[in-house]
Amino acid sequence: MMEHTDRHCRAFHRLLTRRALLYTEMVTAAALVDGGRHDLLAFGGERPLALQIGGDDPGRLAAGATLAEQLGYDEVNLNVGCPSDRVQRGRFGACLMRQPEVVAEAVAAMRQRVAIPVTVKHRIGVDEMDGYEHLARFVAIVAAAGCSTFIVHARKAWLAGLSPRENREVPPLRYADVHRLKADFPHLEVVLNGGIGSVDEALHHLERVDGVMLGRAAYHQPWLLAQVDSRVFGDPGGGVACRREVVERMLPYVAAQLAGGERLHRVTRHLLGLFHGCPGARAWRRTLGEGARRPDAGIEVLGQALAAVEEGQETELPGTPRPG
User: Fold this and answer.
1) CB environment 50-64: b (16+ within 10 A), e (fewer)
2) Among the options 9, 82, 95, 278, which is catalytic?
3) Better-predicted residue by pLDDT, 244 or 81
């Protein structure tokens, strides 16, 4: 979710769910430790929150994990699933599935330095190493180093020949492998990732695994998150009543960011999918997307976008459900 789950996105998503664990974009240990980019760790009221970190050097990863713990993060998640060429050149991401001993060493180093959970996000395999036996061996070796939570993208990754987007779509989903992994390692927490597009689908998988990660579905259709607290956690008081309420509750945050010099579109780009599937959704996206990019764009653009939603609803056929 690079360039997606930044601090503005997470502030928005936290208004939709107070129970779901949110994740940062992947941050490299080298940027944090060698580059001194501690600003990459800044966050506000998004907890519970996990830092997703990338790298292969145990010392740097341990130092990055220490910074995360000191700042109040609830988890450090080592990314061993990203297949991009840039990530591979840095010798981390999905290519590390070929070297489970390196991942285990990194996990052990981080666990020695921090008390918060250290988890691993990975694929079911890479290239020709895509049999279930390879997956089970990887998990067994890393678990022996002290990792007890594995977030498994149920697709293999091709390290050459496919773009990152194609790697999210072309390799077939093999949910059965992840279900089997949980059955074979019942003492571990296994979280399923990949291709899950609704809370109904998530609940189906939760009968077989311990958790489900919603990625792009939650980003492009964020209202899905408003169902999570009640339907997954049994917390009916955790959500919001309607989409308009979300926008209104977002206004103080937007105002504070504008006062600090942030551009409006940097914040509101994450809200474009809020009315997905609703009457007026296109008007919302157009008004907000175009208006927020004006050099003088202010908080009034959100009010204009809400008005456009209501106007769009009036043009829909009678009987079309209204949002919220």
Assistant:
1) bbbbbbbbbebbbbb
2) 82
3) 244
